[in-house]
Every structure is written in C-alpha cells, then in structure tokens.
Amino acid sequence: MKFVAEVLKLSKSATLRLEERRVLRQALIKHPFFPDLVDAYKLDKKFGEYEEGTLIVKTKNGYDLVRGYPKIRRALTLYPTIIKHFKEGNVVIEEKMNGYNVRVVHFGENIYAITRRGYICPYTTEKARNLIPFEFFKDNPDLMLCCEAVGEESPFVSKSVYGIKNLDFFVFDIRRRRTNEALSIKIKEKIAEEYSLNLSPILGVVDVKKAHEEVKSIVKELGKQEREGVVIKDEKMKKSPIKYTASQSNCSDLSYAFRFFNEYGKDFMFSRIVREAFQSFEFNESNDELNERCKRLGDAILKPMIESIREVSNGKKVVERNRLRFDSLEVFELFKKHVKKMGIEAEFSTPIEKNGKFVVYFDRIMMSTTDKIAAHLNGVLW
Ligand code: ATP
Ligand code: MG
Q: Choosing a second label site near 272 at 20 to 30 A (CA), which of 3, 170, 283, 350?
C-alpha cells in the first residue's frame, strides 16, 4: 500500500480512502508465473490524470506505473465531426479490430499482459510471452505495446473473421507507459517492422477534408466482411483518435447484449440503436438498404433473446462458451483464480491434451439473465 501512495504522490490516508471508495484495488495473484512482481494495485475508476485500468506495481527492484488505455470517443456522424475534430492535415484510418484491449509491458525479466481494467491476465500473458520478442523491451524499457488480442481462442471476445485459430496480438498504439504519450504512426510502423510485430491494418492516409467519404466506403466494405470498423487518428498522435463502426458490428454487439440481456446495461443497447439511426441517415440509404438494416437490427435484438429463453425453459443456464488452449496446466489453474478475482462466474471443462497443449472450454455463466428468465417463466411479474 505504501508504494501506491508514493507512486501516486498521495498521503497514506488519502490512499487508504481511495481503497475504501473502491477506486483502488489489489490486483496481483502471487504466483511463480509472475516472478518479478511483489504486489500490484489498479485503478477501477479514473482518478485525476490517471485513467481507469492504471496499474501500480511493486517489483523486485522498485516501483512502477502503467497507465490505463484512454477512452476513444465515437463519431455518430462522419461529416462534419471528423473535420471539426481534426481540423486540417492528414488523418490515418486504421482498422478497429474486434478483440480485447491488452497492454503488453515488461517487469524485470518477463513480459506481462494487462487487460483493460488493469488485471494481469495469465492466459494473455502466456500467449504474449510466446509471440512478442523480449528484445523490444530490452531496447525500449519505458514503452508499452497497446494491442488488440484477437482470435478464436479468446477468453473474452472470440472471433473467427481474422483467420486466427488461437490468439494473436495486433499493435495499434505504442505509448510511454508512465505518461501515456503516444508515438507517431510513422515511428510505430518503423518499430513494428524492426521487431516483426503485427499492426492493426492501416487502411488509408487522407486529407481530413476527404476523410468522411473515405471512411464511409471503407466501413461499408468492412461491414460486409463482418469486421468491426475504424479508428481515425492524427498522424502525429497529438490529437485524440475517434472511432466509427459498421452496422453489422453494432448489430453483433446487440445480439450479444440481448442474449445476456440482464447482465448488460441498458445504455450499452440504447447507444447502439441510436448509432444505427444516424448512420442510416448519413448514408442516404435506398429503401432496400433501409429495410435490410431494419431486418438486421430486429434479428439482432429478438432472436438471441428468444434463444436464451428457450435454453432456460429447457432447464439449462445461459452461458457464453469459449475454447481456450494453455501451454501449461499451472497457468490454467492460475487463470481460474484470475477469473474468480474478476468476479466472473465460470465453469471449466477437464483439460484435454493435444500436441502438448491443453484445450479447455471456459463457460461464463450468465446467472442474472438465467434467474430473470426463470422467474418470468414461473409467473413472476416484471
Ligand atoms: P473506449 O473506452 O476506448 O471507447 P470500449 O471498451 O468502449 O473503449 P471499443 O468501443 O471497442 O471499446 O473501442 C475502443 C477499443 O478499440 C480500444 O480500447 C482498443 O482495444 C480497440 N481497438 C481496435 N483496433 C484499434 C485501433 N486500430 N486503434 C485503437 N484502438 C483499437
Ligand atoms: Mg472493442
């Protein structure tokens, strides 16, 4: 606790108050897999200049701080929003990949993967240690790789559209981990080349005045391929980026949220429906296109909910099932503890060995949705 006060430059009592208010939370499960760490705390809410998900660690050699990944604001209309935000010069249009946000860093002699809320995830760390060259951190100890972890064998967001059977990392920002200062896109590309890192695809560099037209056609194309959308960035990374997503991706979020409708906030659903209206308006759709959008939206909302009701009426729980693949059973055991610490209710299948790795099914139990449906099926009033 004392080290947190020192790193955040607070008094001991102010730090204790942060913990009582649940802004600050202990974040480390001590384990030989995390040999460089003595203790860790994370911020569960934004505090002063520190983003939610900021991690404060005590290592064998001292203290350290890894800033949380900043929020990216969303454009509801492309025109005039992009011009208004970036003003002049070129903007870079990057693919917004759909996985989960991971900051890859090193502490001492090893690589660690931190997820959005500031947990060190054992599963993601195991993969990062295999896929990211430690050389990068030897040469750049104060940098972090902000990546999207994508693939089929993802504990949080499983997708097959990227053609990745297991899990892989796509760097979208390189930042100074203590200040969150982002390197320019040019330098990011140079570093990715040097250390053979995957980048989130850069789909175009255009004059900001033409960006809305370009983004519109890119996003339509990405949508057809079931890809998520784009993030629009300033070449120098001095201005904050903006995100914009395809209708298909809004709908796929909605179908997920409505399948587990009692676990998700109403805001999550509502904001995605509003996006559809603005996009339809701006894209100047034909009747056919509009009808297609309405059908897509309706399907996304209703069908998954009905499926959940059917499951519960058949005596099953509503679950999200993901396939995982561990190198080591020890890491699997650690991951179980990690999931519990995250407050996720889960069941795991017995690991099956395949070519020296262990395949496990991770069922996330959606208890709140299950209970809600069961109650109504048993005659409880809304
Ligand atoms: P945010 O608070 O940043 O809006 P969110 O949890 O609501 O986050 P998203 O709507 O998925 O998340 O949008 C932001 C996220 O998109 C980033 O946190 C990052 O994980 C992901 N991402 C994927 N590709 C990129 C990219 N090329 N550039 C920046 N972020 C990207
Ligand atoms: Mg995302």
A: 170
